[in-house]
Amino acid sequence: MSQLVDSEETTPLLRDDASSDDSQDDDYKSRWRSIRVMYFTMFLSSVGFTIVITSLWPYLQKIDDSTNASFLGWVVAAYSLGQMVASPIFGLWSNYRPRREPLVCSIFINLSANIYYAYAYLPKTNNKFHILMSRAFVGFGAGNVAVVRSYVAGATSLKERTSAMANMSACQALGFILGPALQACLSFIGEYGFTVKFIDLQLNMYTAPALLAAAFGLINILLVLLVLREHRVDDHGRHIRAINYTSEDRVDISEETEETMDQVAVLTSNVLFFIVMFIFAVFETIATPLSMDMFAWTRKEAVLYNGIIICGIGFESILVFLVVKVASQRIGDRPVLLAGLAIIFCGFFILLPWGNHYPKIQWADLKNNSLVSQISEATKASNNSLEPTGCPYEQTWCQYTPAIHLAQYISSDILIGVGYPACNVMSYTLYSKILGPKPQGVYMGWLTASGSGARTLGPVFVSQVYTILGPRWAFSLICSMVLGAIILLSCAYHRLIAFSVRYGRTVE
C-alpha cells in the first residue's frame, strides 16, 4: 500500500491514479477509458475554438466587404455567448439521462456548425452573419464542457480528482496550442486552394481548418458511442449507481442524504472562477494592441512575437499542471489557489507604467513638421503602403503615460502563465468537491456559463478602458479585482472544503 501512495504522488501527466488494490478490475479499466474520452473531448473543444481564430479576420474580409473590426469582436464573442447559453442546458440534461446523449448531441451540433462555417461563402449576401451564426453554434456545441467536468468529478474519488482535473486542463491547454499550429500547417493550401465541384466546396486555408475540426468531431462521436460508459464513485472510489445509469448489473451503494451543500461556498467558487477567466480574457485581448503601442511593432511582428509568447505560455501551463498535481497533494487545493491569485496579482502589478521613457507616437514626425500642410496628395498616397507604428495619437494617454518596457511585458507573461493555470484547475477542482455526491451537471453548467460570460465581458471591458484611459488605469483595475478575489477567498477559506469533509465522512 505504501508503494501505491508513492505512485500517486509522482503521477505523470496522463497516468491514472489507483484508489484501491483492485486496480486491474474491468470496472476500473472501463472507468478510466471513459475518463480519457472526456480528456479528448475537452481537447477538441479548445481546438474548435482556436483552429480558425487566426484566419477568422481575413476570411471575413474575403467573403464580405462590409465587415469591420467591430463586427469581428461580435464574431469572437459569439462563441462564448453560445457556450454560456448551452452549458446549463446540457448540464441539466446530463443529470437525468445517460451522458452520451447530451455529448453526442452537442458534438454533432459542433460538427455541423464547422461545416456551416466552411460553406459561409456560398450565400450571395450577408455572409458575415452566416459566419457569426456558425461561430455561435460552435460555441453552443462546446457547452458540453459542463458535462465533461461533471462526469470526471463524479467518476473520480477525492484522492484522484485533482490529478484528473489537472490532466483535463492540460489537454485543454494542449488544444489551445495545437489549434493555431494546425491552422498554420493548413495555410500551405493557399487563399484560393481548389474546388471540389460535386459538393460545391472551396477547400482553402480558411475552410480546411473548420473541416478538420468537423472530422475530429466525428471521431469524438464514435469514441463516445463505443467507449464511454456511465461510472460514478463515492469519495473513497467505491462504485455507486448514478441517477442517469441505466444498467442493473451494479450493486447500489446508496449515499442518499438530506445533507445539503454549502451554497455560500458554491457562490464563492463561481465568483472566483469568473474573476480568473475574466482576467485571462483581458490578458489575451490586450496582448497585441499593448505590444504594438508600447514597442512600435508592426501587425506582422505583433502576430508573430505574441504567437510565440502564447505558445510558450501554453507549454508553461502544462508544466504548471504537473506541479499543481503534486503541490495540491502536499499542501491542499486552497493554498495553491491562493498562491496562484497572488502570482497573477504580481504579473499585472509589474505591467503598471513607470519611469521617464514614453512610447513612440504614430506619425509624430509628420505631426511636428511645419511643412505637413504642404505635403501633396500624391506624396500621401505613396506613403499609404507604409504601416504606422507606435501609440496612436488619438489615444491621448500616449502623450503622458510612460512606456511599458519589454522586460516588464515578458516578466508579466511568465507570471500570468504560472498563476492562471493553477487558479483555473484549482477553481473547478474545489468546486466539484464542494458540490458533493449528487449529480453535478447543472452546477457545472453554471460554472462553465460564468466562465463564458467572463470571456465575453473581459474583451469589452479592457478594450474600452485601455483605449480611453490607458494601461495605468486598466491594469490598476485588474490588480484591484485580483486583490478582491484574494480577500474573498481568505474570507470564505474555511468554507471551501469538500462535502464529505464538511460532514465528517473523510479527513481533509
TrEMBL record:
Q: A cellular component term (GO) from this record?
A: lysosomal membrane
Q: How does it sit in the membrane?
A: Multi-pass membrane protein
Q: Which controlled-vocabulary keywords does the entry list?
A: Membrane, Transmembrane, Transmembrane helix, Transport
Q: Where is this region: Disordered?
A: 1-27
Q: Major facilitator superfamily (MFS) profile domain location, by residue? A: 34-502
Where in or outside the cell? Endomembrane system
Where are the bilayer-spanning segments? 37-59, 71-91, 103-120, 132-152, 173-194, 206-228, 264-283, 303-324, 336-355, 473-493
Gene Ontology MF terms: transmembrane transporter activity
Database matches in InterPro entries = MFS, MFS_dom, MFS_Domain-Containing_Protein, MFS_trans_sf, Tet-R_TetA/multi-R_MdtG-like
- Location (main, coarse): membrane
**The protein's name in its UniProt record:** Major facilitator superfamily domain containing 8
Organism encoding this protein:
Seriola lalandi dorsalis
